[in-house]
Amino acid sequence: MAKQESDKPEVKPFKGPAGGWGSVRSLAEILPREHVKATALKELGRQNKPEGFTCVSCAWPKPADHHPFEFCEEGAKATAWELTTLRTTPEFFEQHALAELREWKDYDLEQHGRLTHPLRYDAATDKYQACSWAEAFDAIGAAVTPLAPKSVVFYSSGRTSLEASYMYSLMARMFGNQNLPDSSNMCHESTSVGLKAAIGVPVGPTQLEDFKHCDAILFFGQNVGSNAPRMLHDLRDCRKRGVEIITFNPLKERGLERFTNPQSPVEMATLSETQISTQYHQVKAGGDIAAIVGIAKFLVEWDDAAQAAGEPRILDADFIRQHTTGFPEFVDSVRAAEWSDIEREAGLTKAAIEEAARVYAKAKAVMAIYGMGITQHVKGVESVRMICNLLMMRGNIGKPGAGPTPVRGHSNVQGQRTVGITEKTELVPVEKIEAQYGFKAPREKGLDTVETCRGVIDGSVKAVIALGGNFLRAVPETGPMEEAWPRLDVSVQIATKLNRNHLFPGRVTYLLPCLGRIEEDVQATGPQAVSTEDSTSCIHGSRGKAKPASPHLLSEPAIVAELAKRILPPNPKVDWDAWVADYSRIRDAIEETYPAVFKDYNKRLFTPGGFWKGNKAAERIWLTPSKKAEFLRPTGLSSTGFEDAEGRFRLVTLRSNDQFNTTIYGYHDRFRGVKGTRDVLFMNREDIAEARLSDGQIVALESDAGDGKARRREGFIVTPYDIPRGCLGAYYPEANVLIPVEHHAEQSHVPAAKSVPVRIVA
Ligand SMILES: Nc1nc2c(c(=O)[nH]1)N[C@H]1C(S)=C(S)[C@@H](COP(=O)(O)OP(=O)(O)OC[C@H]3O[C@@H](n4cnc5c(=O)[nH]c(N)nc54)[C@H](O)[C@@H]3O)O[C@H]1N2
Ligand SMILES: Nc1nc2c(c(=O)[nH]1)N[C@H]1C(S)=C(S)[C@@H](COP(=O)(O)OP(=O)(O)OC[C@H]3O[C@@H](n4cnc5c(=O)[nH]c(N)nc54)[C@H](O)[C@@H]3O)O[C@H]1N2
Ligand SMILES: [Mo]
């Protein structure tokens, strides 16, 4: 096994830009590291191209005028990860009991490569054993059918295609519940709730084209260099046009500082880099609401002065009057906010905020791009609404080059919602589905991720079926969750590689290996294509061509169909087999359920750049109760949801540049200069001195939620880092054991992973 961890971890500042030669070198290491054949290079050439496959990494849009290689370092890693020649075979499981594997790290678990056979857990030996597909489906059917519909959960992770997601959500509803939590519940649900309330649509209204028309960008809490690197091309083009990019992030993220295009021979040869951010504000974790109130305060002040002097206004009074409600209440709260409170909560000076406000006040079209640094807070929904407030003050929604731009995570996470993966009745055309399939669909709200965790812990959830993902590792409160999971009657995991969730069996447990999106998917009518929706609501076809990792794999639609046939009574209106034989018939069914979005779905499947599903906010049609865009008066200045206290820190849980969520590719977080370990605790030097700790000292963290429950993790290496005082950084998912399940965003229930109250124990 390739050992990437080292006894002498290195932490030293990284001096290069994002992209550049480092990225190319990293790529040269990736292919051998993942044990892929040279043919993988051919597959990389097909990534994100019409008639190719959509990248399995992030959800950033794929342009119509694509480059010869439309991928990035991270996309290449994700592709190589799936195309590895290594295999986790039944022989592997003969050698390793689950008790032993539970001692392994996430990285080591996935290092044996792709799963090859359907597996049944055998409690007598504590091992997985190969079984036939027929046995697996029959046993799952027999175990699930007698359970009360409400006690069964159907989780899915956002990589799954639109076709498989549609079938899966239909199966859940026909079984009798909407217990359809997905990774979005831990991710951009604050966006889906916040944008819907503010501007009437749950998704961002902007598109790639808007990058050509904006003259300033506000960038909040998204680490573009690691998590959506293809966007660096758009940002660089903006910078070349002189667009100002103002960043708010507690950490100095390299991708937000400098970038060299690894695909441009000229930039590479001349070592020329583009400065990305023109202003960089190291806001405190949880300080964005305060920072935005500060900017708004300047705008209001300057607008007052402009009116008094008879000069052109700073606020877009016409937009506010014609298109919005709630402005007076919002402005009152902005006027009432004290600068001393704003400075303290944001961790920024008034002068720094003024600098940002000056640029914003001058710009004619502004995009506000954001990620998990905004959504994963107790006040995550409010933070999203504050971004909308700020944009609305100057009419920056519904015109070219302007608007909120959430950067979605998984490659089809937004699309899953479009085709019914949701616990919320109001998001599905229930009557349409009932008419189409002749059954009574449930109206009761289903369980989201946080509610599923509660249910697993209190025993009311009896079965979890997971279409992808690593639920037990990605959720908060991993201690009690791991204890409770074995009490489940049924645990079924559909996956491509072994992960920690698979090591916690229920009474009846199956691990079902499936095809990845890059692999050829041949059914009765021939090779099939699937589709995904990107962050800007464009829908793309995807055709895998690589040889499957094992002849025993089934596709996700095929697995869902077989499960449905076992757990549901027969229904002549749903011909699961016909759908699997020809996926274009699934798309016809999707089009019938959602005619407006999916008109001519099969015909438009491979439209270059994807086909856009439209967005009413982009046309300034507001689908809110008031039929206007709605300002929100903030309830406070901090988004953490807890008070500051002596010795209490705000822990930010982060992704490294060498992971995809719970998949750990390696131990090299290049941009942050960390090599050989994931146990770092990023900490401000002054805080280290004040706490009488030293560089490299090993400490433990304890949660400081004040709920009387002990949560602790040992073995963090104190690492001096440029991070605001009072804030700490550590990697997700290792730190998840410290997050209380009840520490989540109000309204959206997104776990508040970006400000966890903790104490350091030396
Ligand atoms: N290579 C790779 N690509 C990925 C993923 C991956 O793991 N690896 N994951 C995918 C998924 S599912 C998602 S959701 C996205 C995640 O992509 P991001 O949204 O970038 O998520 P994080 O890496 O968690 O980092 C969030 C950023 O927010 C900053 N931050 C933390 N707290 C605050 C705060 O209070 N305010 C502000 N302004 N900033 C803050 C952090 O310093 C960090 O730079 O990426 C997707 N793409
Ligand atoms: N503390 C903390 N916790 C977090 C976050 C955070 O920032 N901090 N981020 C949250 C976010 S944004 C998200 S999206 C979630 C992610 O939560 P999940 O989406 O549940 O987790 P992943 O790590 O993306 O899932 C990885 C597994 O998916 C399986 N897989 C990969 N490809 C395929 C495929 O094509 N088909 C199938 N069936 N399986 C496949 C593999 O077995 C792999 O082990 O985590 C959340 N948890
Ligand atoms: Mo995500």
Brief summary:
This protein is of the alpha/beta class. Helices cover 34% and strands 17% of the residues. Among the domains are: 189-407, Dimethylsulfoxide Reductase, domain 2 (3-Layer(aba) Sandwich), CATH 3.40.228.10; 649-761, Barwin-like endoglucanases (Beta Barrel), CATH 2.40.40.20.
Question: In terms of topology, how is this protein built?
Answer:
Layout: E1 10-11, E2 18-19, H1 20-33, H2 39-45, H3 73-83, E3 87-88, H4 90-95, H5 98-101, H6 106-110, E4 114-115, E5 119-122, E6 127-130, H7 133-144, E7 152-156, H8 162-175, H9 189-199, E8 216-220, H10 224-227, H11 231-240, E9 244-248, H12 254-257, E10 258-260, H13 265-270, E11 274-275, E12 279-281, H14 288-308, H15 317-323, E13 324-325, H16 327-336, H17 339-346, H18 350-362, E14 366-370, H19 372-375, H20 380-393, E15 403-406, H21 413-418, H22 430-437, H23 449-458, E16 463-467, H24 471-474, H25 478-484, E17 490-495, E18 508-513, E19 522-523, E20 526-527, E21 530-533, E22 538-542, H26 556-567, H27 576-581, H28 583-593, H29 601-604, E23 611-612, E24 629-630, E25 649-654, E26 659-660, E27 663-664, E28 668-669, E29 674-675, E30 680-683, H30 685-690, E31 698-703, E32 712-720, E33 727-731, E34 756-761
Parallel strand pairs: 2-10, 3-4, 7-16, 8-9, 8-14, 9-12, 13-24, 14-15, 16-17, 17-18, 25-33, 30-32
Antiparallel strand pairs: 1-29, 5-6, 5-18, 10-11, 19-20, 21-22, 22-23, 25-34, 26-27, 28-29, 30-33, 31-32, 31-34
Bound molecules: ligand MGD (2 copies) and molybdenum atom.
One ligand MGD binds at residues 57-58, 74, 187, 220-223, 226-228, 248-251, 253, 283, 285-286, 288, 371-373, 407, 409-410, 652, 654-655, 659-661, 754.
